[in-house]
Specification:
Blueprint lengths: L2 H9 L9 E5 L2 H4 L9 H11 L3 E4 L1 H6 L6 E5 L1 E2 L11 E2 L3 H6 L4 E8 L4 H18 L3 E7 L10 H13 L4 E4 L5 H9 L5 E4 L7 H13 L4 E3 L2 H4 L4 H14 L3 H9 L3
Parallel strand pairs: 1-2, 1-10, 2-3, 3-6, 6-7, 7-8, 8-9, 9-10
Antiparallel strand pairs: 4-5
Length: 265
């Protein structure tokens, strides 16, 4: 069996048959602490599973303690806390081998393109990509344009550059910022040879805005979403996931997705 077979099998546990995915990243305990929604991880994971989440991103310590049920497990290899003076410099804290031992379906690495320490993050990405090929482990690169030369992290040219960079250096899936418009995000997707999923970013004011962003990104060709705070800090974690699943996998309109949430309000 060749090594790409391993990647193919594992990716099937993250992406459904429509080649789309609803991922909930829950690695925030390292970067911003045990914030609202992730104080009790077991309860939150169970609520999100009930909603139909396809995969979770966890750090290795929590991956040892929590079962993600039938969902895919993505082990995050990068870390830095927002308490450090240089919080754009993500460093590797877990190996692909450790992720294999944990039964991971993929690993993820975070790169801030344009940050002062971009060089070391790129070196990590290149090294991890090689290890992933050795073990047949899919690699998700979380690639964001962030740094002194980047005034707007949602700028279409910068986002397209970041996404392409991740794919060029060996990632199997790219997670990056949504550009705010279907037309410009379409260009990001079309210039990236591997599937692109969108980040949720900081807490968004209204649920409708989140649903609209997801709807538009799918229309632009995104392969899904990886949204954390706007999911686990929502007042109804199960229903918000159901609404997102309806948009990503079932072709629901924003109005229909809102109705799913409204039934309980």
């Amino acid at each position: 069996m060749n090594m790409t077979q391993g990647k193919t099998r594992r990716l099937k546990r993250i992406f459904r048959e429509d080649n789309r995915t609803v991922v909930v990243p829950m690695d925030h305990g390292v970067s911003i602490g045990p914030v609202k929604g992730i104080e009790n991880m077991k309860e939150t994971v169970n609520r999100l599973l009930k909603g139909g989440a396809d995969a979770f991103v966890l750090h290795k310590g929590l991956a040892k303690h929590f079962d993600v049920g039938s969902a895919g497990l993505i082990v995050h290899l990068s870390a830095v806390s927002n308490l450090t003076p240089n919080c754009l410099n993500k460093i590797q804290v877990c190996t692909v081998q450790e992720a294999v031992r944990l039964g991971a379906d993929a690993v993820s690495v975070h790169i801030n393109v344009g940050a002062p320490d971009e060089c070391s993050m790129l070196a990590t990405l290149g090294r991890v990509a090689e290890e992933c090929d050795t073990y047949g482990m899919p690699l998700l690169a979380m690639v964001y344009p962030r740094g002194p030369k980047i005034p707007n992290e949602h700028d279409a040219v910068a986002v397209a550059h970041a996404a392409r960079l991740g794919a060029e250096l060996g990632a199997d899936i790219i997670k990056t910022n949504y550009t705010g418009k279907i037309e410009t995000f379409k260009q990001v997707v079309e210039s990236c040879p591997v599937p692109v999923i969108i980040a949720g970013g900081p807490k968004i004011e209204t649920t409708q805005q989140i649903l609209q962003m997801v709807n538009d990104s799918i229309k632009a060709g995104a392969a899904g979403i990886s949204i954390g705070r706007n999911v686990f800090q929502h007042e109804d974690q199960t229903l918000i996931v159901q609404a997102l699943v309806a948009l990503v996998h079932k072709g629901a309109t924003v109005e229909k997705a809102l109705k799913l949430l409204g039934e309980k309000h």
